[in-house]
Amino acid sequence: MIMTAVKHAEAHCNNSFAVEETLQRPFFHMDCRVWPIWRNHRCAANGYSLHHMSQNEDAEIVHFDNVGLRYGTEKEVLTDVSFTLYSGRFYFLTGASGAGKTSMLKLLYLAQRPSRGLIRMFGTDAITLPRDRLPGFRRRLGVVFQDFRLVPHLSAFDNVALPLRVAGVPERDIVKPVTDMLDWVELGDRSHARPATLSGGEQQRVAIARAVIGRPDMLVADEPTGNVDPDMAIKLLRLFEALNRLGTTVVVATHDVHLLRKVPDSLIMRLDKGRLSDPTGALRYPPRRTVAAPRPDMVLR
Amino acid sequence: MNLIAALTGNPREEWRERASAESRLLPQGKLSGPMPWVIAIMIGLTVVASACGLALRNTARVASADVAGGVTVQIVNGAPRERDRQAQAALAALQGAPGIASARLVPQKELDALVEPWLGTTAGDDVNALPVPALIDVRLSGNADSAAIGGLRTRLGPAAPDARIDAQASWLAPVFEAIGALQWLAGGLIALLAFATVATVLLASRNALSNHRATIEIVHMLGGTDAQIARIFQRSMAVDAAAGGIGGLLLGVITTALLARQFAALGSGMMTAGGLGWTDWLVICCIPVGGVLLAVLTARLSVLHALKGML
Question: Going edge to edge, which strands form the sheet with B70-75?
Fold first, then answer.
């Protein structure tokens, strides 16, 4: 019965994604083949399930209400930040260096608690969330750290496999998707390399592969294209878009204005000295979907 | 059948897979270091202390059982004839009396052997120069308590007015007290060693946590649970403690065997009585198991406590 369900899901996925670009095929192939198996695996019963997109379009996924953040007794790095992110949207978070992008992303991926205000994630108050429920939430998130944060003693393969292993996915179901993902980010031949032997761009790609391998509900990326060449940057953006089309909410922090133009349906949030502005109507509901090229005043100085 | 297998999976296989996957999260080699050696020393010392404690307990038990109903009757009279008469009368009064298991007049040869170390081989020959009391070794069917001693006095009073009655247990009371103190000392040493083991494991766990803090933060950010991370540490600690435990057990058993050989060479009855039985060896063999459990529990609790400080 389970196997029938798996086969049905595979067939459905293969049909649905047959029209996707060749570039995206390995990713979708992985998605269709692996996800139904993960869903049915017993690890889900042990609390090790990887979540998958099931939210409705326009369902609220993150809500910040009057959030402030300060480190120690310093002045606030984020002030009165209020916004709502909706499921399946593609958001860019932009702003000058020191505007608070990374701090905001830290709040988004639950690495930091705010000093004040309310944060609701996936319909749950994230501030009063008991500590033992945090892992479950974090498994619904994919994070690309600005400093990559690859595990130094693990190979590129093991780094990418890390979220799956943490989630309890059986080893037999890990090899194929991880290999596919590494091939996709053009690191198939470097799968055994340790992070120290990889260039900055290669480390970046491993970090991105690790963030998306679990097909998270929300992907949070901090300057994900900062260390890669323009071609690879576009390719990675396509990956994010592909993930977004599957229903993943994507939040990309960047100061690369050119990048903003590459995703036509994206919504832009701009941080300026810890305060949020809304140049593209990203924070309105319903959010404006069609966005032209960023206005000149959005260009970072 | 296949459906059941698909639903339930193979728990052992899953556990093995999970352990294998989790063990890759942190570099295992660096967790070890000197830990197996430290645990081996701790376990070795604990085995020796336990063996000593158990041997002392056995000695005390056997000696206590030997002297529990033992009473010595001394006939203290300077006149040899009168002394012998009273001794025979006392022996006759004791033999067959209720509450008396046996009564034996200690032969002159044994008396001479007893005083020989202090008075020389010819001391007993010159009976006029140094009178030695006649001794009757009495075994009571019950304990030689004050009531039993009082009863004996009443019974012997008319037949042997010069009789002095002593419970053998009262002579050995200081020895038993010393043995008891040594047993407490062994227990205290075991407790201290356990405490030292806990402290060592605690320090090692914190050190390992500190070394791997960055990796642990990443694992946390990827949805790793505290229990997963604690499992990695406790597994590593279990391996170290098991290796150390086996080494320590061997070390302790060899040391104990050498000590036992030395004490057996003394030829003393009390020392022979302190030999370890199979239950004692079973207890000793359980020490490494206890050490492993203690180390694993300490590692788990210390890691979980430290992880609580991380978001």
Answer: B100-105, B134-140, B70-75, B163-167
Contact criterion met (CB below 8 Å) for A277 and A95: no
User: What's CA B88's distance to the chain center, in Å?
Assistant: 44
| From B3, B21, B226, residue closest to A165, measured CB to CB | B21
Number of domains within chain A: 1
Three-state SS for B6-60 is: HHHCCHHHHHHHHHHHHHCCCCCHHHHCCHHHHHHHHHHHHHHHHHHHHHHHHHH
> CA B105 to CA B249: how far, in whole Å?
49
Contact A42/B14, CB-based, under 8 Å?
yes
Amino acid at B164: R
HEC string of A7-57? HHHHHHHHHHCCCCCHHHHHHHHHHHHHHHHHHHCHHHCCCCCCCCCCCCC
Note whether B21 contacts A171, CB cutoff 8 Å: yes
Chain A positions in Cβ-Cβ contact with residue B308 (cut-off 8 Å): 131
**Residue A27: beta bridge partners?**
none
Using a CB-CB cut-off of 8 Å, the residues of chain B touching A171 are: 17, 20-21
A130 touches chain B (CB under 8 A): no
Q: Tokens 């004050």 belong to which residue?
A: B146
Tell me how far apart the alpha carbons of residues A51 and B228 are, in angstroms, rounded to a whole number: 19
Q: Which residues contact A236 (CB under 8 A, 6 or more apart)?
A: A185, A205, A208, A224, A225, A228
With beta carbons less than 8 A apart as the criterion, state whether B269 and B241 touch. no
Note whether A277 contacts B: Cβ–Cβ < 8 A.
no
Domain boundaries, chain B: 22-64+173-307, 77-161
pTM strictly above 0.90: no
Of B20, B27, B221, the CB nearest to A153: B27
Among chain A residues, CA nearest to B219: A166
* Contact predicate B219/B65, CB 8 Å: no
- The Cα A14–Cα B113 span in angstroms is 103
DSSP E strands in chain A: the ranges are 60-69, 78-86, 90-95, 116-121, 124-125, 141-144, 218-222, 249-253, 267-272, 275-277
Interchain pair A143, B224: CB under 8 A: no
> A166 and B219: CB-CB below 8 Å?
yes
Report chain A's terminal Cα–Cα distance, integer Å. 59
State the complex-level ipTM. Answer: 0.72
From first to last of its 311 residues, chain B has per-residue pLDDT tens of 444 444 445 666 666 666 666 666 666 554 457 888 989 999 999 999 999 889 888 888 887 777 777 888 888 887 888 888 888 888 888 887 787 888 888 888 888 787 777 777 665 555 556 778 888 888 887 777 777 788 888 887 787 888 888 887 777 778 888 888 888 998 999 999 999 988 988 888 888 888 888 888 888 888 888 888 888 888 888 888 999 999 999 999 999 989 888 887 776 666 666 678 889 899 999 999 999 999 899 989 988 888 887 77
What sign does the dihedral B278-B238-A138-A44 (CA atoms) show? negative
How many beta-carbon contacts under 8 Å exist across A and B? 75
